[in-house]
What we know:
By secondary structure, the chain is an alpha/beta fold. Helices cover 31% and strands 28% of the residues. It contains six helices and eleven strands.
Amino acid sequence: MKTMAKVLMPIGDATEVLDTMYPFFRLPEDGFQVVVSGPEARLYHMVQHERPPGWDITQETPGYHLKAEIAFRDVDPTEFAGLFVSGGRAPEYLRYDKVLLEITKHFFEEAKPVAAVCHGIEILTASNVIRGRTVTTVAKCKMDAEQGGARYVDEPCVVDGNLVTARTWHDNTPFLKAFVEMLKKMTR
């Protein structure tokens, strides 16, 4: 029996539910094992983000829970075919985790597929891996992308080399389609 190629999914408290759960269930449908990691191997509290009519900013409500099976410090990035970086507020503090930043750099140094949605761009910027790239993200993170040296475009899904980015979970269909195609090419 062939083992499934693994995709690393770093999360933390306040990871966005739809940014995370859609790929969590979607990637195994194409034969990829999702390994959830966090600052610690424990249960994390996710949140739902929605912009109600008339609001200028997203409203955050409690979401589901998801367990990280491995702590960042125990991750061997060489065991993974790809990296999926979710959004939500978690990247605001995960971007300070030096171990996660080194893990992220590995995927770019080895040209492995990387997917980032919404606030996930903050982790990529902190890792200094998007300089010179074209990316998309949620509009309120445009500055984060540009501070990382990337060119921001407002499109549902952008592929630049080994990197695929999306604005929000609303773009999950083209986003995951592109990421799965990248993973399949890498693991053939």
